[in-house]
Amino acid sequence: MDEKFWKRADAYIQLANDQSDSALLGEVNASFTYACARFNAFVITSEAPDAGALKEAKARAIEHFTAEFRRMLDHNLDDHIAHFDQYFARKGKPG
Question: For 90, phi and psi rounded to 5 degrees?
Fold first, then answer.
């Protein structure tokens, strides 16, 4: 993935972090997840010549996006496990 990919991802994360200042993390996450799903649907729709083709592509699209999300979530959770103390230093934590 190129530098532009990471800059876009960081911009979305920064927006979510900014919104977390005035909303619960779960609320921001729900909005973020909905927006991603909505945009994914838009991408698939923009590639379909008509509603029939979109209907035929629906199952493949869901499988693709679900697999990609699972892969990315798995990777990021592994990263957070490996770097938990670095990423999530808590105030008052010993050591």
Answer: -100, 140
- HEC sequence for 11-46: HHHHHHHHHCCCCCHHHHHHHHHHHHHHHHHHHHHH
Is there a contact between 28 and 16 (Cβ–Cβ < 8 Å)? Answer: yes
Amino acid identity for residue 10 in this structure: D
pTM of the model: 0.83
Distances (CA, A) of 17 to 8, 10, 31, 50, 61: 14, 10, 12, 38, 29
Q: How far is CA 3 from CA 6, 10, 47, 63, in A?
A: 5, 11, 26, 27
Of 40, 16, 46, the closest CA to residue 29 belongs to 16
pLDDT per residue as tens digits for the range 25-42: 999 999 999 999 999 999
